[in-house]
Amino acid sequence: SQTIHQWPATLVQPVGSPLSLECTVEGTSNPNLYWYRQAAGRGLQLLFYSVGIGQISSEVPQNLSASRPQDRQFILSSKKLLLSDSGFYLCAWSTPDSFNTEAFFGQGTRLTVV
Amino acid sequence: AQSVSQHNHHVILSEAASLELGCNYSYGGTVNLFWYVQYPGQHLQLLLKYFSEDPLVKGIKGFEAEFIKSKFSFNLRKPSVQWSDTAEYFCAVIAGYSSASKIIFGSGTRLSIRP
Description:
Chain A is an all-beta fold and 114 residues long. Chain A is built from no helices and 11 strands. Chain A has strands at 3-7, 10-13, 19-26, 32-39, 43-52, 55-58, 65-70, 73-78, 87-94, 104-105, 109-113. Chain A starts with a strand and ends with a strand. Chain B has 115 residues and is an all-beta fold. Chain B has strands at 3-5, 10-14, 19-21, 24-26, 31-38, 44-50, 56-58, 64-68, 73-78, 87-95, 103-105, 109-114. In chain B, the strands form 3 sheets. In chain B, strands 2, 5, 6, 10, 11 and 12 form a 6-stranded mixed beta sheet that branches. In chain B, strands 3-9-8-7 form a 4-stranded antiparallel beta sheet, with no helix packed on it. In chain B, strands 1-4 form a two-stranded antiparallel sheet.
């Protein structure tokens, strides 16, 4: 069966420090991968989307970047964190066949920038 | 670009009341639609999904949703809610049948059930 791992679960980082959140998927190949940010009253905002290795689509302008160095690995990064980067980040995957798919979510990372 | 609107931000009901949560999407072509639920402290999980067959979709825990193409709507319903239905509910859409199609979520509706 397929599983998705996201870590760390919680993170407290000072302003100006770098960030790296990692997400890996097991049990499937060539998944579509997503990074979302969940904020109260704003739902799940799609940040990045990837359909393959090295293929990243940025959905909103921001201080963050994403990379997909391997088929089932998706990394969310920042060179210098801002206070406004605090939030709950969710990684998700779906099958590439959009006719019969759904999003499967990781546990999420609670990021607090201080 | 596709988008999803959930106009009810917070709904408060008593147990046994009927529930309807609104969801509207914007996209002129073929869509697949989803409702996800997030119980307090838990992961997002799929309640139900629509894939171009019967417009009335039945999901887990007695929930159902109806796709009305002419209204661009996919409202979630339950005839009699329970306290355990307290959660946040998200509507989502994936537009078109392409490997590049992406899943877009609405802003969510928080449902509080009074015992």
